[in-house]
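Team,

Forwarding the record for the chain on the shared tracking sheet. I've put the sequence and predicted structure together so nobody has to dig through attachments.
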Amino acid sequence: QLQLVESGGALVQPGGPLKLSCEASGFPSDFYAIGWFRQAPGKEHEGVSCISSYDDNTYYADSVKGRFTISRDNAKNTVYLQMNSLKPEDTAVYYCAADSVLGKECGLGPAEYDYWGQGTQVTVSS
């Protein structure tokens, strides 16, 4: 059974860093493209970043480019999202998701992903 579990969400001050983890079980995380998404209250899911399976290409939303970094540790079957220079508008529930179509370049559209974690809350506030 494929499962994704996010962790690392917290309350952080504006300008601070935070690192989220997405641990995969039931499959090797490097087989599938993994994406990070977020949902703020009253808003749709927003694609934040993703990492492709076969070439580890990475993509970022314009709103986080230069501040967030996605990475993968295959030994730990975990994908990370390092977030720096956090802003209040980054406040949201953050989800990771897997696209189970093998060998596919990742994208930032939620509809491309079929396995989702339960989410972790990130709050940026002073």
